[in-house]
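#struct-help
A.M.: can someone run this one for me? Single chain, 395 residues.
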Amino acid sequence: EAGRLAGPGAAAPAAGGLPPTVIVADTAVRDLPRAGVWSAGGGVRFATADSFLTQAVAATGSDPLTLATTDDALRWEWRIDSPVARDITARSMLRLAAGDAAATAPGAGVLVVPPNHMADPQQADGVLASLAAVLNDGTAVARPLAALAEPAPAPLPPGPADGFGAPFSTPAAPTDTEIQRSAQQATYTLQLTRLMVNDPHIALTRYQFTEPLLDDLLAALSTTERRSLAHHVASDRRAEDILTGNKAMLQQIRSSVALLPPGTVYTRISDSSPLLIIGRNGLPLPVDAKIDWQGPVGTRIEVPDSQQIPAKGSITIQFTATLPQDLQLRRRAEITMWLSTADGAPIADPVELSVQTRAGITGNAPTTALLVGLAVLLVWRLVTFSRRRRRRDNP
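D.P.: on it. C-alpha coordinates below:
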Protein backbone atom coordinates (compact mmCIF):
# COMPACT_ATOMS: atom_id res chain seq x y z
CA GLU A 1 0.00 0.00 0.00
CA ALA A 2 2.86 2.38 0.83
CA GLY A 3 4.49 1.72 -2.51
CA ARG A 4 1.25 2.32 -4.39
CA LEU A 5 0.63 5.67 -2.69
CA ALA A 6 4.20 6.98 -2.74
CA GLY A 7 4.93 9.82 -5.13
CA PRO A 8 7.96 11.95 -6.01
CA GLY A 9 9.05 13.75 -2.90
CA ALA A 10 7.34 11.29 -0.55
CA ALA A 11 9.26 10.04 2.45
CA ALA A 12 9.59 6.33 3.04
CA PRO A 13 8.95 5.10 6.59
CA ALA A 14 12.11 5.08 8.67
CA ALA A 15 13.38 1.69 9.85
CA GLY A 16 15.35 1.06 13.01
CA GLY A 17 15.33 4.70 14.01
CA LEU A 18 17.05 5.79 10.79
CA PRO A 19 16.11 9.13 9.25
CA PRO A 20 13.40 9.01 6.58
CA THR A 21 14.38 8.41 3.00
CA VAL A 22 12.96 10.80 0.41
CA ILE A 23 12.11 9.58 -3.09
CA VAL A 24 13.22 11.92 -5.87
CA ALA A 25 13.41 11.58 -9.62
CA ASP A 26 16.85 10.79 -10.97
CA THR A 27 16.59 13.79 -13.31
CA ALA A 28 16.42 16.07 -10.24
CA VAL A 29 19.88 14.91 -9.16
CA ARG A 30 22.37 15.11 -12.01
CA ASP A 31 25.48 12.98 -12.48
CA LEU A 32 24.14 10.10 -10.38
CA PRO A 33 23.16 6.54 -11.34
CA ARG A 34 19.51 5.87 -11.93
CA ALA A 35 19.14 3.82 -8.76
CA GLY A 36 20.60 4.08 -5.28
CA VAL A 37 20.30 5.55 -1.82
CA TRP A 38 22.39 8.65 -1.21
CA SER A 39 23.35 10.88 1.68
CA ALA A 40 23.46 14.63 1.21
CA GLY A 41 24.74 15.31 4.73
CA GLY A 42 22.88 16.51 7.76
CA GLY A 43 20.95 13.24 8.04
CA VAL A 44 19.26 13.69 4.65
CA ARG A 45 18.84 10.46 2.68
CA PHE A 46 17.16 10.11 -0.68
CA ALA A 47 16.54 7.34 -3.19
CA THR A 48 16.46 8.02 -6.91
CA ALA A 49 13.53 6.79 -9.00
CA ASP A 50 13.84 6.05 -12.71
CA SER A 51 12.14 8.97 -14.46
CA PHE A 52 11.98 7.22 -17.86
CA LEU A 53 10.13 4.22 -16.46
CA THR A 54 7.91 6.49 -14.38
CA GLN A 55 6.94 8.46 -17.48
CA ALA A 56 6.33 5.26 -19.47
CA VAL A 57 3.90 4.05 -16.80
CA ALA A 58 2.19 7.48 -16.62
CA ALA A 59 1.70 7.48 -20.42
CA THR A 60 -0.40 4.31 -20.40
CA GLY A 61 -4.17 4.19 -20.55
CA SER A 62 -6.69 6.38 -22.32
CA ASP A 63 -5.50 9.59 -20.63
CA PRO A 64 -1.68 9.73 -20.77
CA LEU A 65 0.10 12.18 -18.47
CA THR A 66 3.18 14.33 -19.01
CA LEU A 67 5.33 14.46 -15.88
CA ALA A 68 7.54 17.34 -14.81
CA THR A 69 10.46 14.93 -14.37
CA THR A 70 10.51 14.09 -18.10
CA ASP A 71 13.09 15.63 -20.39
CA ASP A 72 11.54 18.32 -22.61
CA ALA A 73 13.16 16.74 -25.66
CA LEU A 74 11.37 13.45 -24.99
CA ARG A 75 7.88 14.89 -24.61
CA TRP A 76 5.43 14.53 -27.45
CA GLU A 77 1.79 13.88 -28.17
CA TRP A 78 1.39 10.54 -26.42
CA ARG A 79 -2.08 10.02 -27.90
CA ILE A 80 -0.57 9.47 -31.35
CA ASP A 81 0.21 5.95 -30.17
CA SER A 82 -2.72 3.75 -29.27
CA PRO A 83 -3.33 2.80 -25.60
CA VAL A 84 -2.36 -0.78 -26.47
CA ALA A 85 0.98 0.33 -27.96
CA ARG A 86 1.78 2.52 -24.95
CA ASP A 87 0.83 -0.28 -22.60
CA ILE A 88 3.14 -2.72 -24.39
CA THR A 89 5.96 -0.15 -24.30
CA ALA A 90 5.61 0.36 -20.55
CA ARG A 91 5.50 -3.39 -19.87
CA SER A 92 8.58 -3.99 -22.01
CA MET A 93 10.52 -1.20 -20.34
CA LEU A 94 9.68 -2.55 -16.89
CA ARG A 95 10.83 -6.05 -17.82
CA LEU A 96 14.05 -4.81 -19.46
CA ALA A 97 14.87 -2.55 -16.51
CA ALA A 98 14.34 -5.37 -14.02
CA GLY A 99 16.45 -7.78 -16.07
CA ASP A 100 19.22 -5.23 -16.56
CA ALA A 101 19.35 -4.40 -12.85
CA ALA A 102 19.48 -8.09 -11.94
CA ALA A 103 22.37 -8.69 -14.34
CA THR A 104 24.49 -5.60 -13.75
CA ALA A 105 23.73 -4.50 -10.18
CA PRO A 106 22.15 -7.27 -8.11
CA GLY A 107 20.37 -5.92 -5.08
CA ALA A 108 20.23 -2.34 -6.36
CA GLY A 109 16.66 -2.71 -7.47
CA VAL A 110 14.46 -0.59 -9.71
CA LEU A 111 12.33 2.15 -8.18
CA VAL A 112 9.33 3.28 -10.23
CA VAL A 113 6.74 5.72 -8.92
CA PRO A 114 3.29 5.15 -10.45
CA PRO A 115 1.08 8.20 -11.05
CA ASN A 116 -1.34 9.14 -8.31
CA HIS A 117 -4.19 9.11 -10.83
CA MET A 118 -5.00 6.55 -13.50
CA ALA A 119 -7.89 7.14 -15.86
CA ASP A 120 -9.15 3.56 -16.08
CA PRO A 121 -8.76 0.25 -14.23
CA GLN A 122 -7.19 -1.40 -17.29
CA GLN A 123 -4.25 0.98 -17.02
CA ALA A 124 -3.48 -0.10 -13.47
CA ASP A 125 -4.14 -3.77 -14.30
CA GLY A 126 -1.59 -3.66 -17.11
CA VAL A 127 1.14 -2.20 -14.91
CA LEU A 128 0.46 -4.66 -12.10
CA ALA A 129 0.42 -7.56 -14.56
CA SER A 130 3.87 -6.59 -15.83
CA LEU A 131 5.21 -6.41 -12.30
CA ALA A 132 3.68 -9.77 -11.48
CA ALA A 133 5.32 -11.33 -14.53
CA VAL A 134 8.87 -10.29 -13.59
CA LEU A 135 8.24 -11.45 -10.03
CA ASN A 136 6.80 -14.82 -11.06
CA ASP A 137 9.66 -15.73 -13.41
CA GLY A 138 12.28 -14.79 -10.82
CA THR A 139 13.68 -11.79 -12.70
CA ALA A 140 12.94 -9.55 -9.73
CA VAL A 141 12.10 -9.88 -6.06
CA ALA A 142 9.53 -7.67 -4.38
CA ARG A 143 10.84 -5.43 -1.61
CA PRO A 144 8.87 -3.17 0.72
CA LEU A 145 9.33 0.56 0.42
CA ALA A 146 10.78 0.66 3.94
CA ALA A 147 13.72 -1.43 2.67
CA LEU A 148 15.09 1.73 1.05
CA ALA A 149 16.24 2.87 4.49
CA GLU A 150 18.22 -0.30 5.21
CA PRO A 151 21.41 0.06 3.13
CA ALA A 152 24.04 2.55 4.17
CA PRO A 153 23.69 5.59 1.91
CA ALA A 154 26.54 6.41 -0.42
CA PRO A 155 28.04 9.90 -0.19
CA LEU A 156 27.35 12.27 -3.04
CA PRO A 157 30.22 12.70 -5.47
CA PRO A 158 31.78 16.16 -5.61
CA GLY A 159 30.09 18.47 -8.05
CA PRO A 160 28.61 21.93 -8.55
CA ALA A 161 26.05 23.20 -6.06
CA ASP A 162 23.47 23.63 -8.83
CA GLY A 163 23.33 19.91 -9.51
CA PHE A 164 20.00 19.58 -7.73
CA GLY A 165 16.46 20.56 -8.64
CA ALA A 166 14.07 20.06 -11.54
CA PRO A 167 15.96 20.84 -14.76
CA PHE A 168 12.87 20.76 -16.96
CA SER A 169 9.77 22.88 -17.27
CA THR A 170 6.65 21.82 -15.41
CA PRO A 171 3.66 21.70 -17.78
CA ALA A 172 1.19 21.29 -14.92
CA ALA A 173 2.48 24.10 -12.70
CA PRO A 174 -0.13 26.68 -11.61
CA THR A 175 0.47 30.20 -12.86
CA ASP A 176 1.89 32.94 -10.65
CA THR A 177 -1.51 34.64 -10.69
CA GLU A 178 -3.26 31.49 -9.46
CA ILE A 179 -0.70 31.05 -6.68
CA GLN A 180 -1.01 34.68 -5.61
CA ARG A 181 -4.82 34.58 -5.62
CA SER A 182 -4.89 31.32 -3.69
CA ALA A 183 -2.46 32.64 -1.07
CA GLN A 184 -4.48 35.81 -0.61
CA GLN A 185 -7.80 33.99 -0.31
CA ALA A 186 -6.27 31.45 2.06
CA THR A 187 -5.11 34.33 4.27
CA TYR A 188 -8.60 35.83 4.31
CA THR A 189 -10.08 32.43 5.13
CA LEU A 190 -7.72 31.92 8.07
CA GLN A 191 -8.56 35.41 9.35
CA LEU A 192 -12.22 34.48 9.22
CA THR A 193 -11.46 31.27 11.11
CA ARG A 194 -9.65 33.14 13.87
CA LEU A 195 -12.56 35.56 14.13
CA MET A 196 -15.05 32.83 15.06
CA VAL A 197 -15.33 31.18 18.46
CA ASN A 198 -16.32 27.56 19.08
CA ASP A 199 -19.50 27.14 21.08
CA PRO A 200 -20.01 23.93 23.11
CA HIS A 201 -23.73 24.10 22.32
CA ILE A 202 -23.09 24.15 18.54
CA ALA A 203 -21.84 20.95 16.88
CA LEU A 204 -20.15 22.84 14.05
CA THR A 205 -16.60 24.08 14.75
CA ARG A 206 -14.90 27.04 13.14
CA TYR A 207 -12.41 24.83 11.28
CA GLN A 208 -15.21 22.67 9.91
CA PHE A 209 -16.98 25.79 8.66
CA THR A 210 -14.01 27.16 6.71
CA GLU A 211 -12.51 23.83 5.61
CA PRO A 212 -14.51 23.70 2.32
CA LEU A 213 -13.09 27.10 1.36
CA LEU A 214 -9.53 25.83 1.79
CA ASP A 215 -10.38 22.58 -0.03
CA ASP A 216 -11.49 24.66 -3.02
CA LEU A 217 -8.09 26.36 -3.14
CA LEU A 218 -6.29 23.01 -3.10
CA ALA A 219 -8.57 21.77 -5.88
CA ALA A 220 -7.79 24.85 -7.97
CA LEU A 221 -4.04 24.22 -7.64
CA SER A 222 -4.28 20.50 -8.35
CA THR A 223 -1.95 19.24 -11.08
CA THR A 224 -3.77 15.93 -11.67
CA GLU A 225 -5.60 16.91 -14.85
CA ARG A 226 -3.16 19.64 -15.91
CA ARG A 227 -0.60 16.94 -16.71
CA SER A 228 -2.94 15.57 -19.34
CA LEU A 229 -2.80 17.29 -22.72
CA ALA A 230 -6.45 16.39 -23.34
CA HIS A 231 -7.65 18.10 -20.15
CA HIS A 232 -5.07 20.84 -19.60
CA VAL A 233 -7.11 23.73 -21.04
CA ALA A 234 -10.31 22.60 -19.34
CA SER A 235 -8.40 22.23 -16.06
CA ASP A 236 -7.16 25.83 -16.33
CA ARG A 237 -10.70 27.07 -16.88
CA ARG A 238 -11.93 24.98 -13.97
CA ALA A 239 -9.25 26.46 -11.70
CA GLU A 240 -10.31 29.98 -12.71
CA ASP A 241 -13.96 29.19 -11.99
CA ILE A 242 -13.10 27.69 -8.60
CA LEU A 243 -11.00 30.69 -7.53
CA THR A 244 -13.64 33.16 -8.71
CA GLY A 245 -16.44 31.31 -6.91
CA ASN A 246 -14.31 30.94 -3.79
CA LYS A 247 -13.63 34.67 -3.73
CA ALA A 248 -17.31 35.53 -4.13
CA MET A 249 -18.33 33.13 -1.36
CA LEU A 250 -15.60 34.43 0.94
CA GLN A 251 -16.71 38.02 0.39
CA GLN A 252 -20.32 37.06 1.08
CA ILE A 253 -19.37 35.31 4.32
CA ARG A 254 -17.14 38.13 5.52
CA SER A 255 -19.77 40.75 4.75
CA SER A 256 -22.24 38.96 7.05
CA VAL A 257 -20.19 40.30 9.98
CA ALA A 258 -20.50 44.07 10.00
CA LEU A 259 -21.22 47.25 11.90
CA LEU A 260 -24.59 48.90 11.32
CA PRO A 261 -25.01 52.50 12.53
CA PRO A 262 -28.55 53.44 13.59
CA GLY A 263 -28.19 56.49 11.37
CA THR A 264 -25.64 58.31 9.31
CA VAL A 265 -25.57 61.37 11.60
CA TYR A 266 -25.30 61.36 15.39
CA THR A 267 -26.61 64.47 17.17
CA ARG A 268 -25.20 64.94 20.66
CA ILE A 269 -26.69 67.17 23.34
CA SER A 270 -23.37 67.22 25.20
CA ASP A 271 -19.81 66.07 24.59
CA SER A 272 -20.27 63.19 27.02
CA SER A 273 -23.39 61.85 25.33
CA PRO A 274 -22.89 58.15 24.42
CA LEU A 275 -23.18 56.95 20.84
CA LEU A 276 -24.63 53.62 19.71
CA ILE A 277 -23.73 51.23 16.92
CA ILE A 278 -24.99 47.73 16.10
CA GLY A 279 -22.74 44.72 15.54
CA ARG A 280 -24.31 42.08 13.28
CA ASN A 281 -23.17 38.46 12.89
CA GLY A 282 -24.66 36.28 10.18
CA LEU A 283 -22.28 33.35 10.78
CA PRO A 284 -23.39 30.10 12.43
CA LEU A 285 -20.82 30.59 15.20
CA PRO A 286 -20.15 33.49 17.59
CA VAL A 287 -17.43 35.94 16.62
CA ASP A 288 -14.97 37.71 18.88
CA ALA A 289 -14.02 40.98 17.21
CA LYS A 290 -12.73 44.38 18.13
CA ILE A 291 -13.75 47.77 16.78
CA ASP A 292 -11.11 49.85 15.05
CA TRP A 293 -11.67 53.46 14.06
CA GLN A 294 -10.12 56.40 12.30
CA GLY A 295 -10.97 60.06 12.85
CA PRO A 296 -9.57 63.58 12.92
CA VAL A 297 -6.32 64.19 14.74
CA GLY A 298 -6.92 64.48 18.48
CA THR A 299 -10.12 62.43 18.46
CA ARG A 300 -10.47 59.86 21.23
CA ILE A 301 -13.08 57.10 21.08
CA GLU A 302 -13.72 54.84 24.03
CA VAL A 303 -14.84 51.41 22.80
CA PRO A 304 -14.66 47.97 24.46
CA ASP A 305 -11.47 45.99 23.81
CA SER A 306 -13.45 43.17 22.19
CA GLN A 307 -17.03 42.26 21.51
CA GLN A 308 -18.49 38.78 21.19
CA ILE A 309 -21.43 38.80 18.83
CA PRO A 310 -23.70 35.73 19.10
CA ALA A 311 -24.26 33.37 16.20
CA LYS A 312 -26.91 34.62 13.79
CA GLY A 313 -27.52 37.60 16.05
CA SER A 314 -26.60 41.18 16.84
CA ILE A 315 -25.68 43.38 19.80
CA THR A 316 -25.84 47.10 20.51
CA ILE A 317 -22.46 48.63 21.33
CA GLN A 318 -22.21 51.89 23.25
CA PHE A 319 -19.19 54.16 22.95
CA THR A 320 -18.17 57.76 23.59
CA ALA A 321 -16.28 60.10 21.29
CA THR A 322 -14.18 63.02 22.55
CA LEU A 323 -13.42 65.52 19.81
CA PRO A 324 -10.53 68.01 19.84
CA GLN A 325 -11.28 71.63 20.72
CA ASP A 326 -10.99 72.94 17.17
CA LEU A 327 -13.68 70.50 16.04
CA GLN A 328 -16.06 71.70 18.73
CA LEU A 329 -16.52 74.89 16.69
CA ARG A 330 -17.45 72.97 13.57
CA ARG A 331 -20.82 71.48 12.87
CA ARG A 332 -19.78 67.88 12.13
CA ALA A 333 -16.88 65.45 12.61
CA GLU A 334 -16.40 62.44 10.32
CA ILE A 335 -15.38 59.10 11.90
CA THR A 336 -14.75 55.75 10.19
CA MET A 337 -15.28 52.49 12.13
CA TRP A 338 -14.89 48.82 11.21
CA LEU A 339 -14.65 45.33 12.74
CA SER A 340 -11.32 43.50 12.81
CA THR A 341 -9.69 40.38 14.24
CA ALA A 342 -7.62 40.39 17.43
CA ASP A 343 -4.44 40.94 15.41
CA GLY A 344 -5.91 43.92 13.57
CA ALA A 345 -6.92 42.38 10.24
CA PRO A 346 -10.08 44.13 8.97
CA ILE A 347 -13.05 41.85 8.38
CA ALA A 348 -16.02 43.99 7.40
CA ASP A 349 -16.31 47.04 5.20
CA PRO A 350 -15.88 50.31 7.13
CA VAL A 351 -18.86 52.53 7.93
CA GLU A 352 -18.78 56.33 7.85
CA LEU A 353 -20.29 58.20 10.80
CA SER A 354 -20.98 61.93 11.18
CA VAL A 355 -21.06 63.27 14.73
CA GLN A 356 -22.86 66.61 14.99
CA THR A 357 -21.36 68.77 17.70
CA ARG A 358 -23.09 71.31 19.92
CA ALA A 359 -21.80 73.99 17.60
CA GLY A 360 -23.65 72.24 14.81
CA ILE A 361 -26.85 72.44 16.83
CA THR A 362 -26.52 75.96 18.24
CA GLY A 363 -24.85 77.33 15.15
CA ASN A 364 -28.18 77.24 13.32
CA ALA A 365 -30.09 79.08 16.07
CA PRO A 366 -29.71 82.66 14.68
CA THR A 367 -30.69 81.55 11.23
CA THR A 368 -33.67 79.66 12.59
CA ALA A 369 -34.83 82.68 14.65
CA LEU A 370 -34.52 84.96 11.64
CA LEU A 371 -36.59 82.63 9.47
CA VAL A 372 -39.25 82.36 12.17
CA GLY A 373 -39.37 86.15 12.49
CA LEU A 374 -39.74 86.61 8.75
CA ALA A 375 -42.52 84.05 8.68
CA VAL A 376 -44.42 85.86 11.51
CA LEU A 377 -43.99 89.21 9.74
CA LEU A 378 -45.26 87.75 6.48
CA VAL A 379 -48.35 86.33 8.18
CA TRP A 380 -49.06 89.65 9.93
CA ARG A 381 -48.80 91.55 6.64
CA LEU A 382 -51.16 89.08 4.96
CA VAL A 383 -53.73 89.40 7.76
CA THR A 384 -53.50 93.22 7.71
CA PHE A 385 -53.88 93.34 3.93
CA SER A 386 -56.89 91.04 4.07
CA ARG A 387 -58.67 93.22 6.68
CA ARG A 388 -58.10 96.40 4.71
CA ARG A 389 -59.49 94.82 1.58
CA ARG A 390 -62.68 93.68 3.33
CA ARG A 391 -63.24 97.19 4.72
CA ARG A 392 -62.81 98.69 1.28
CA ASP A 393 -65.23 96.26 -0.30
CA ASN A 394 -67.83 96.72 2.50
CA PRO A 395 -67.89 100.45 3.48
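A.M.: thanks! The longest helix spans residues 365-393.
D.P.: also worth noting: The longest strand covers residues 313-322.
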